[in-house]
Amino acid sequence: MKNSRLAVIKDKRFGDHKTPESHPESPERISAINDLVRRFESEFDYLEPREATEEELASTHSPGYIEDLHKMAEVAKNTDSLIGIDPDTVMSPKSYTTAKLAVGAALEGVDCLAKQTHDSCFVAVRPPGHHALADRAMGFCLFNNVAIAANQAKAKGFKRIFILDWDVHHGNGTQALFYDDPTVFFASLHQHPFWPPGSGYRDEFGDRDGEGFNLNIPLPEGTGDVGYLKCLDEIVGPICLDYKPDMIIVSAGYDAHKDDFIAGQNLSTVGFAMMSQRVADWRDTLDTRVLCLLEGGYNTHALADSVMATMRVLNASGPEELGQVHASYMVPATISGGAAATNDSQPDKVSELIERIKEEQGRFHGQLKL
Ligand SMILES: [Zn+2]
């Protein structure tokens, strides 16, 4: 062990979940990340994933749903074919095992943070999870990795978990699973209107005991580094610091990258590094832990570079080292993203949105003077 701050969990078996040719959520996403991590291998410690048990899955998903997915994978195996669950989401012969390995990897991450061997962990898995509901797969997602990790973290004694979902799509599954739960705060920045339809609106504040513990920031298409960082600095950060979580989980999707074809946001790789720096700052201010679980990100170069940016920033030991990490992301030969800049196409819309959200969330977080 190198005794890095950040533990990394990666495994080539996350490529065993197959999707149709030309499907954006491809096994190549994992190989691109693994290839780049190999170049920086000596910087981090590594942990081995394990398969989650069915009992662990059942902390979040209905037993009938788990059984249905299992059966579907058996059919895929016996017929050596891909079975469509919906137009976007498929089961391949090894999908069930791979999805259980993805959840188990997330739980290994929870364990290492509980044991305090590391204060941060990045888990580079697929299939992704944040759209999966208790009893329904959707949007490339089978099991909700983040939600199961949060539930298992609670079972291990963590009291308050703050989930930051910066994937370009709204994390509807995660939101639904904790909508009435004040012990899990869900905050999402996403392009809006976009997919999935019908969720991710500003006025989804949570329900019953969970009212005031859900924050949606529906961003206009074309939002870039400055807009995203402004949202973190003016809304998400103050709320997170006030909530004082003992674990921050990042639903780390990279499909808001300007080079990603699936959406229309303008984040650069440096922008992702700077967002990761905000998370590292909250971690250090609160003396808390950070678990990052991979969600989307479909331009494999932009994905791998941005994942590496997050890993290196979370692993940096102080401002000086962080400065060096950022400088390294300015080198175009190794990194596809440009410098963070005013690349927002609609800065006024974003500023107006931030003011509205401050007003609305002020109902619950008035003491923050958002
Ligand atoms: Zn996404």
What is this structure's SSE topology?
Layout: E1 6-9, H1 28-39, E2 45-46, H2 54-57, H3 63-79, E3 83-84, E4 90-91, H4 95-115, E5 120-123, H5 145-155, E6 161-165, H6 172-177, E7 184-191, E8 214-219, H7 225-243, E9 247-252, H8 269-286, E10 290-294, H9 300-315, H10 319-328, H11 347-365
Parallel strand pairs: 1-2, 1-5, 5-10, 6-7, 6-9, 7-8, 9-10
Antiparallel strand pairs: 3-4
Helix pairs in contact: 1-9, 4-5, 7-8, 7-11, 8-9
The structure holds zinc ion (ZN).
- The end-to-end distance, rounded to whole angstroms, is 42 Å
- Number of E-type strands: 10
Overall CATH class: Alpha Beta
The largest sheet has its strands arranged as 2-1-5-10-9-6-7-8
Tally of helical runs: 11
Residues in helices, as a percent range = 40-55%
Strand content: 5-15%
CATH architecture: 3-Layer(aba) Sandwich
Report the oligomer.
single chain
Rough shape?
globular
CATH-defined topology: Arginase, Chain A
* Main pleated sheet: 8 strands, parallel
Number of domains: 1
Give the topology string: H per helix, E per strand: EHEHHEEHEHEHEEHEHEHHH
Low-confidence stretches: 331-341
Defining key terms:
12% strand, two-stranded antiparallel ribbon, Arginase, Chain A, 370 residues, eight-stranded parallel sheet, binds zinc ion
